[in-house]
Amino acid sequence: MGTEVENKMVTGIYLITSKYKDKENGMIAAWVTRLSFKPRLVGIAIGKVRYSHDMIKKSRKFVINFLSGEDNETKEIIDWFGKLSGRDINKMKRYKWMYGKIRVPILKKAFAYLECEVIDERQVGDHTIFIGRIIDGKLVDKNKNSITTLGYE
Ligand SMILES: Cc1cc2nc3c(=O)[nH]c(=O)nc-3n(C[C@H](O)[C@H](O)[C@H](O)COP(=O)(O)O)c2cc1C
Question: Which of 74, 118, 127, 147 is the most interior residue, by most CB within 10 Å?
């Protein structure tokens, strides 16, 4: 058996942004989940080979940017941030950004976002689960919904 069964698991698809020293970057992640109400915690599983991995590990902060399933540009955003590496190019130049409490870039066109501080991490095979405490966040447009793995092939 290959990974056909796991590939049928439905999740949201998010843009994870990070900042370490002068470098800013974004990558796509589908392995993103809520973990606790009190405190409000979320988890992201980031491949150890990703450029974002060490940025998040060192800076201990990240933003989860919510991408709308209704927006035609979303697939383009997923391909750009999900198929290219910040190691090779500056992916940030193509889009517009703003900054919140933790000073990590927030995609201006995200319909919602969560600013998180890393409080713990777990090594799980070839990924690290970063556990983030939600510091701040905003639902900018309550009429939009996240793109999921069902809406992106
Ligand atoms: C739909 C989709 C979902 C993805 N989910 C994850 C994920 O959950 N974790 C991960 O480490 N990489 C995931 N990736 C791969 C990264 O986004 C990709 O390797 C990216 O180029 C890493 O960028 P970086 O090297 O600039 O950090 C996903 C890619 C796509 C297209």
Answer: 147
Instruction: For residue 75, give the DSSP letter.
Output: H
Q: How many angstroms separate the CA atoms of 145 and 116, rounded?
A: 20
pTM for this structure? 0.98
Give the CATH number, domain containing residue 135: 2.30.110.10
Query: Phi and psi for 124 in degrees, rounded to 5?
Result: -130, 95
Nearest CA to ligand 1 atom 6: 29
Asked, for residue 2, whether it belongs to a domain, the answer is no
Residue 115 to residue 50: CA distance in whole angstroms: 20
Q: Does residue 4 lie within any of the structural domains?
A: no
Compute the distance from residue 88 Cα to the ligand 1 centre, in Å.
14
Q: pLDDT digits over 81-99, tens only?
A: 999 999 999 999 999 999 9
Q: Coil, strand or helix: which one is 57?
A: helix
Q: What are the pLDDT digits (tens) for 113-143? A: 999 999 999 999 999 999 999 999 999 999 9
Distance 40 CA to ligand 1 centre (A): 24
Q: Is residue 120 part of a domain?
A: yes
Q: How far is the CA of 27 from the centre of ligand 1 (A)?
A: 6
| CB of 129 sitting under 6 A from ligand 1 | no
Residue 49 corresponds to which tokens in the numbers above? 């080979």
